[in-house]
Amino acid sequence: MKVLLIQPPVRVDIDPCDIPAGIAILSSIAIEEGHQVALLDLNSSRPIPSLRDSAKQIAVEKWDIIAIGGLSSMYKDIKKLLYISRKINPDALIVAGGGFITYMPQKMMEFNPEIDIAVMGEGEETWREVLRTYDSKQWNKVKGICYRQDDTIVFNEPRPLIPNLDVIPYPAYDLLDMDSYFSYSGSMWFPGGFWNAKRRINFVTERGCPRQCTFCTHNGMNRWDQLALYGDKKVKEMDKEFEYQAITRFFSPEYIVKHVKMLYEKYKIDYICLLDENLTAYPKRVHEFCDLWIQEGLHKKVKLGTSGDAPSISPEIVKHMKEAGFVYISVGGESGSDKVLLKDIGKGVTSADNQRAIDTMRNNGVEPHMTFMVGNPNEDINDVLETVKFLKHNKATVNPFICTPYPGTKIFMDHEDSILAQYDEKLELLRNNKISDIPKDLVAKWKNDALEKFLLSLNNATDYSCTVSQKFDFGDLIAIKHFMNLQDYGKLLKLAHMRNWSHDEKWNKECPVCLAENQVSVELKPRLN
Amino acid sequence: MIKSNFNVKKIETDKENVDKQKFEALIESSGVGSHMVFRTTENDDEFFIEEL
Amino acid sequence: MSENISFDLDEKTYQKLLEKKENMGFKNKSWNEWFSNLIDEENSYSKILENIFEKKNYDVYFDDWIKNFKNNLLTIQNGHSAKKLIPEKEYPSGIIIGGGPSLKKHNHLKILANSNFEGAIICCDSVLSKALEEGVTPDKFKNFFVVVIDTQSHQKQWFEKDIVKKFGSKIKCIVSTTVHPSTYEAIIDSGMEVYWVHALFDYDKGKTSFNYISGIMSRSEKNQKGFPGIQTGGNVGTAAWTVSWNILKCPEVILIGIDQSYPIENQNGEIDFNSIGRAHPILYEYVEKIKSGKDNSESVKQAFPITFNPDFNCHYIQDPVFLYYSNALKEFIQKTQNKVKTINATEGGAIFGNGINSIKFNEYLKLKN
Lengths: 529, 52, 369
Fold this sequence. Notes:
The complex is a heterotrimer of chains A (about 525), B (about 50) and C (about 375).
Chain A: E1 2-7, H1 21-32, E2 36-41, H2 51-58, E3 65-69, H3 75-88, E4 93-97, H4 99-102, H5 105-111, E5 117-119, H6 124-133, E6 145-149, E7 152-155, H7 178-183, E8 200-203, E9 206-208, H8 223-230, H9 232-241, E10 248-250, H10 253-267, E11 271-274, H11 283-295, E12 303-308, H12 315-324, E13 326-334, H13 338-345, H14 351-363, E14 367-374, H15 381-393, E15 401-402, H16 410-414, H17 416-421, H18 425-431, H19 440-457, H20 474-486, H21 489-498, H22 512-528
Parallel strand pairs in A: 1-2, 1-3, 3-4, 4-5, 8-11, 11-12, 12-13, 13-14, 14-15
Antiparallel strand pairs in A: 5-6, 6-7, 9-10
Chain B: E1 2-4, H1 20-29, E2 48-49
Chain C: H1 11-23, H2 31-43, H3 45-77, E1 80-81, E2 94-97, H4 101-105, H5 108-113, E3 120-124, H6 128-133, E4 144-148, H7 162-167, E5 172-176, H8 181-189, E6 193-199, H9 210-217, E7 229-230, H10 236-246, E8 252-256, E9 262-263, H11 281-292, H12 298-303, E10 306-309, E11 314-317, H13 320-335, E12 341-344, E13 357-358, H14 361-368
Parallel strand pairs in C: 1-6, 2-3, 2-8, 3-4, 4-5, 5-6, 6-7, 8-12, 12-13
Antiparallel strand pairs in C: 9-11, 10-11
Helix pairs in contact in C: 3-13
């Protein structure tokens, strides 16, 4: 059987530093199953190939199966690729997977009639079973998918999480343009000594995260997501029938070391970014990993960088990680305001935790990297100013993300109506009770159309797509993001006055309007007298 | 872009035809600098030879 | 699918082919891929360009190389080798200053003059006086070098300016053995110390090559092992790049003013053929043809391509000479990623692509601070 897997472009505004490990693992599985497998990676270089060139690549063979997947932010390109895949291969079985379809499988199947099968959540075992079921077409027996049957979309039982991640094969590196990725190793876009890397690769050593930030999902690969997708009852059934559906699962340190040794031997890698969601949240495991890494001498050969969360970053952990060759730890700082952190984001972390984490990393020779975002639901100008103050204090230059309600996130679910209203003004009129007595099916159609416009507008949060902010409109957000990057208190405070937002008195000394008013009243006072 | 574990057909590039002779004539009639790009089969010597 | 074809080779030939294939970076790739690459490479436009320019260089300049070398010989034999400039401790980085249009457009010299940059400054000869006038001086930047390779006598003009003479004694000049003697005289008059290099032309042609013969002839009691040879890439900008990491041992090299192209956008960022002036007659002639529709053929477009630089969001046009230079420099930067990190902060021009890091100059300086 001839199987084509397509990696769509992602984050096209920056260099393609990360190999598409997910689709490369699925390629390995297809090879293990004995098929003729091709991987079309449309993300390996910049500029990305045109749709025309991509179509030419797809047209080189008559494929039995075409698989395509990605994140919600990639939907615009995925949609086009689905269309041309079907046009070119009318008879192929088209399988879609990844975050973009996991959270809205019904809608995605409706919006994209090209898709025959949707793989929801963790894909490896489901994909293997899809391949094995191709001949019999008995799709009803495959857990973790929904599929098209006549005019309906049939949902099968969800698939439980893979309990032991060590069974997952290595990505099919031979099907990737590794030289192209290595050529971006020293990319200037990233901090953390990336730019000293000569042959950098990315890796994941865990799936999941114990925190439940309202803006985050896990591509259906942990307990929080399963609870949101299938409900409490179903997840508890899976706990009983299979194994406890974990919040976080790990590859063993032995698996990781063996994998890295192979990469070192074959590709002479010198830097690995562990793209884990939250490595430091499990200190015992961090120590086990670092011990084995150092014992195997890899600390002398390969530099490391990873992500963590602020409360878990202790001097002991950081020292051990430094010894193991970690150069940076990236933490989601998000905001300098405790109100935003605790109430809007629900991270369970404060600004003091973030500061402590930065200080701990700096004192122990590991570079801190923090990301921030603006446009959280209840964030006001005072919260923004607190964030700028935090950045200035730490001499950090940050261009904040815009808080984006990706499908499956709590912020999406909590604000779905207001999000859709941003894509159809009629829905906004309805929300504000300016129109009424609209038939339900017509409103449903408006919402459906607005939903797809929303999905097509999604990007990687460096740019504006839509907002959940209750305080700022889109013009405000773009301006605030710009001035946060410049750390310009003056402009932010001027904007506050222009919009009649009140700011705390402690900012008066930074505020050009307040300073001018004060100065004028002091100078004029004697004259008035 | 596409890589596989079997022999996938190679596709032709879509460049329109360039008249090679005309292209060469255009290059000939353009200016020339006083130095050229140095080429060698000895990779180590391509950029720097310590003692000529 | 086409059939596979097999044929016999003796073991020795096979081993040679295998070695060549591996040396060209095709170790893990198929024989088909390597052979295809060889054939495509031979027929490619960049290869045609190189072959023509190599021949033109010989035809036009060979005699000048010999004459200039002959006239410089005694000075060379008694002079300093550029190897003397190899530092004990490497400079943290080096900035190459080229004379391309982006330098003025983005005010890079002023930005540099106002910065706290601590590495080496490697200036191309034609832009030296401008750099000094804008405050990029050896008083501020202690490790200041200038590179001169061109063979024509008019190069001396860069060293006859008063401001160059003012700072000359603090500048080290890396000079090709084939420069015009009057250029050498002007350099000395300005107060600079000269350090000789051979520009590599034809060393690969063996003992009958100009490089080999001139290399032997330049050896003397003072310089028993002769002088180093550098890849110039055809132009002083690429030569300065080579010098920065091979002689000055900079692990990181930043390019400004290295456009190797002409801008072709107006102030609104639109392609505007009227922006090409008569200052570039050959280019102007062809642009006029394109504008008037008299000759808009693919051949012209291939020889005078207009390209979009996505890193700096601008279009540029090149003539065959700049195309020749930039093809080479881009290839070199990609090839040497393991040896030197090249950062292009020109904010325009033709140098972008795989392995080339692009960034705005003031952002780079901010990052470094």
